Amino acid sequence: MSHPVRAARRRIQTEWQSVVRGVDDCADRVADPWDTSRTTNPDRVVAPLRTGLEEAGLLEGLASLLADAVAAADCELPASPVPAPPYVTVTSRGPVLRATIDPGRLVVRLEAFEVVRAPIPAYRRLDGVDVYVSLE
């Protein structure tokens, strides 16, 4: 793991747990109405998760988290990130944050759901939110 990745991950773990918990709470609300532990309909994940994050003010928080993670990596962004693509995207697994920095693209994934491929593709709620940071 590179220094920028370690530094960004450490900053998220120490300074941004309230945002990670907020993503977790929104993901719980998305999965609560499901009649089983999973759904095969991606529309029951992405749109409700995005709406929940927006209503909770977390999309702005995710953009700020990304800017702070970049700063922790001792890098600079050419512009302030906005809570929309390409900086902040809500996927069927959870929010994905991306920033192009000098060594490459810093990607932060906050995974609250997993995709189960067999026998039919389905989306299952994880126990919590897994935070992944990479430099691509």
Keywords:
alpha+beta; elongated; DUF7988 domain-containing protein
Number of helices: 4
Backbone CA Rg: 15 Å
Number of strands: 5
Query: What is the string of helix and strand elements?
Result: HHEHHEEEE
Span between termini: 12 Å
Characterize the biggest β-sheet. Answer: 5 strands, antiparallel
Give the DSSP E fraction (strand runs of 2 or more residues).
Answer: 25-35%
Overall form: elongated
Contiguous uncertain segments of 5+ residues: none
In helices, the fraction of residues equals 25-40%
With strands numbered from the N-terminus, the spatial order across the biggest sheet is 1-5-4-3-2
Q: What class would the helix/strand composition place it in?
A: alpha+beta
Can you give the mean pLDDT?
Answer: 94
Q: How many independent structural domains?
A: 1
Short description:
With 136 residues, this protein is of the alpha+beta class. It has four helices and five strands.
Topology:
Layout: H1 3-15, H2 17-31, E1 38-39, H3 46-55, H4 58-72, E2 88-90, E3 95-101, E4 104-116, E5 122-135
Antiparallel strand pairs: 1-5, 2-3, 3-4, 4-5
What does this entry look like structurally?
The chain has 136 residues and is α+β, with helices and mostly antiparallel strands. It has one domain (3-135). It has 4 helices and 5 strands. Helix 1 packs across helix 4 and helix 2 (17-31) crosses helix 3 (46-55). The termini are close together. The radius of gyration is 15 Å and the shape is elongated.
